[in-house]
């Protein structure tokens, strides 16, 4: 079943990566004076906003493959009063809309810092609400396997981990300059999030973590998720964290400075870890058939 | 006027013949693998030494279950399109024209009552044979039961007649959704959990 949920795996991971990278890479550029783009020409922040928009649009497209009857998708906002799924879609659309506004402001070269910062902040807040409602919709009181704090914890962790790892690749200037000098902040931030991720995964993963309880199954066939998915997540998280730690050590070494390629490999490790973790998440309730 | 239609199930009388399941399938022309009413076979227990003799402590009974047309249906509150709604007579109904096939209701229902139809790509479930009710006839499953283990009617009336038990092992906590269901438990049900009984026929559910 979890194998058949690849559209949801893709949708959740792409959405979380988009929001995480927006928060860690794009949003700071609207407040970081040192990362201010050169005057004249196209604002380089536009490309980054468009990348985030593309990720969110790809996520939305993937979600359609999960629907049995997408022709009725226009009705998906009918139950905002009660359904977290309706709310998730609302916040996804709001985030997309605000990012489009932000892209337009940048494209039209609007110089008002208040307008840019205000829109950028609203898009960030909407993105966080999108992530929150995404996690909340799985926390059904009738599904004990998902109705734990591990669900929002895991979803936020994916967003922050992939976002921070993306920031470690781009550096503090978000690729506004071709070869930004590395400082320790971005790498350290990614390493801290990875360490938190490792601790949460090791301790709290349902059924396999040290303190993780086996979820009750109720009147449904109890799923038997594979331990390999848990071990895979741990190994990839650890590999990414070790790579980042090595890069941090290199910051003070002028002869062998940190490599962007190594940061990219660390990001790929974290991505593999979260893919593994997401299939495990769905397998708790839906099984692996 | 009926305010809340409900099913009564007498586990002490059910032989597990599955006539209810088949009558439902026949009435609604359901394809292979699709069941709106299912009979769960619950069994467990072992052998215990009593003095010099080994005696069985077996527990075995059946639960016939369809949609319980809950008083607080979590499927309806989960549904993003409001395709699932409660009629004035309490029947929980799926409006196919609004369903997007997201399967969120299927996940939310603790009784596994909602199924995804692989042909129509819509969520489907028991609708209490509302067409038969309109003709003054009982639902197909109730009419088919040879042991009269199933009954139906207004929830309050049924509670007066049969009591108010709405959970036996391994059904989920009824407080989550308030099912319109009344059960007369089988004698083995009280100790089934302690004897580690399990649903034994998942393959056919």
Q: Could you say which structural class the secondary elements and strand pairing of chain B correspond to? A: alpha+beta
Number of strands of chain A: 0
Identify the most extensive interface between protein chains: A-B, 28 and 37 residues
Shape verdict of chain A? flat
Structural class by secondary-structure content of chain A: mainly alpha
- List low-confidence stretches of chain B: none
> SSE string of chain B, helix = H, strand = E?
EHEEEEHEEHEEHHEHEHE
What's the multimeric state? heterodimer
Helix content of chain A: 55-70%
Number of helices of chain B: 7
- H and E order of chain A: HHHHHHHH
Kindly estimate the percentage of residues of chain A that lie in beta strands according to DSSP: under 5%
Fraction of residues in β-strands of chain B: 15-25%
How is this structure best summarized?
Chain A is an all-alpha fold and 289 residues long.
Task: Walk me through the structure.
- The complex is a heterodimer of chains A (289) and B (205).
- The longest helix of chain A has 27 residues, at 260-286.
- In chain A, helix 1 (6-26) runs antiparallel to helix 2.
- Chain A is flat, with a radius of gyration of 20 Å.
- Chain A is built from eight helices and no strands.
- The model of chain A has no long low-confidence stretch (mean pLDDT 89).
- By secondary structure, chain A is mainly alpha-helical.
- The relative contact order of chain A is 0.14.
- The termini of chain A are close together.
- Chain B has 205 residues and is an alpha+beta fold.
- Chain B contains seven helices and twelve strands.
- A three-stranded mixed β-sheet of chain B has the order 10-1-11. In chain B, strands 5-2-12 form a three-stranded antiparallel β-sheet.
- The A-B interface holds A 66-70, 72-73, 75-79, 82-86, 89, 137, 140-143, 218-221, 285 and B 40, 65, 74, 76-83, 97-104, 107-112, 116, 120-122, 170-172, 176-177, 199, 202, 205.
């Amino acid at each position: 079943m979890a194998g058949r949920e690849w559209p949801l795996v893709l949708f959740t991971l792409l959405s979380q990566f988009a929001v995480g990278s927006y928060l860690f890479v794009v949003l700071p550029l609207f407040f970081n004076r040192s990362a201010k783009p050169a005057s004249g020409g196209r604002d380089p922040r536009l490309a980054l906003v468009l990348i985030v928009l593309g990720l969110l649009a790809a996520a939305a497209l993937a979600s359609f493959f999960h629907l049995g009857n997408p022709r009725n998708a226009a009705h998906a906002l009918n139950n905002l009063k009660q359904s977290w799924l309706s709310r998730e879609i609302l916040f996804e659309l709001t985030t997309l809309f605000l990012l489009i506004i932000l892209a337009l402001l940048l494209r039209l070269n609007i110089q008002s810092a208040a307008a840019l910062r205000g829109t950028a902040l609203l898009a960030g807040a909407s993105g966080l609400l999108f992530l929150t409602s995404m996690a909340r919709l799985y926390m059904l009181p009738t599904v004990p396997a998902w109705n734990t704090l591990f669900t929002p914890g895991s979803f936020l962790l994916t967003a922050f981990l992939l976002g921070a790892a993306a920031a470690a690749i781009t550096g503090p200037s978000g690729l506004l300059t071709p070869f930004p000098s590395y400082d320790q902040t971005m790498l350290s931030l990614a390493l801290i999030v990875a360490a938190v991720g490792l601790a949460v995964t090791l301790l709290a993963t349902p059924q396999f973590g040290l303190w993780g309880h086996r979820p009750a199954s109720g009147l449904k066939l109890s799923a038997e998720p594979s331990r390999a998915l848990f071990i895979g997540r741990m190994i990839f998280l650890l590999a990414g964290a070790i790579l980042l730690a090595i890069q941090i050590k290199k910051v003070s070494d002028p002869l062998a400075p940190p490599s962007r390629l190594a940061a990219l490999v660390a990001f790929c490790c974290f991505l593999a870890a979260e893919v593994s973790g997401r299939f495990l998440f769905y397998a708790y309730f839906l099984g692996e058939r | 006027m009926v305010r809340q239609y409900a099913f009564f199930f007498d586990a002490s009388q059910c032989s597990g013949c599955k006539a209810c399941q088949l009558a439902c399938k026949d009435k609604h022309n359901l394809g292979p693998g699709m069941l709106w009413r299912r009979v769960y076979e619950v069994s467990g227990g072992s052998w215990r030494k009593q003095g010099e003799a080994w005696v069985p402590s077996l527990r075995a009974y059946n639960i016939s279950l369809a949609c319980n047309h809950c008083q607080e249906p979590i499927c309806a509150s989960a549904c993003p399109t409001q395709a699932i709604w409660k009629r004035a007579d309490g029947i929980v109904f799926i409006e196919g024209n609004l369903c997007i096939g997201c399967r969120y209701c299927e996940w939310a229902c603790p009784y596994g009552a909602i199924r995804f139809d692989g042909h129509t790509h819509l969520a489907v479930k028991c609708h209490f044979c509302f067409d038969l009710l309109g003709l003054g006839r009982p639902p197909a499953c109730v009419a088919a039961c040879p042991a009269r283990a199933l009954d139906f009617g207004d929830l309050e009336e049924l509670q007066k007649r049969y009591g108010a038990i709405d959970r036996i092992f391994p059904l989920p906590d009824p407080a989550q959704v308030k099912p319109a269901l009344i059960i007369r438990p089988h004698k083995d049900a009280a100790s089934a959990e302690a004897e580690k009984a399990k649903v034994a026929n998942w393959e056919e559910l």
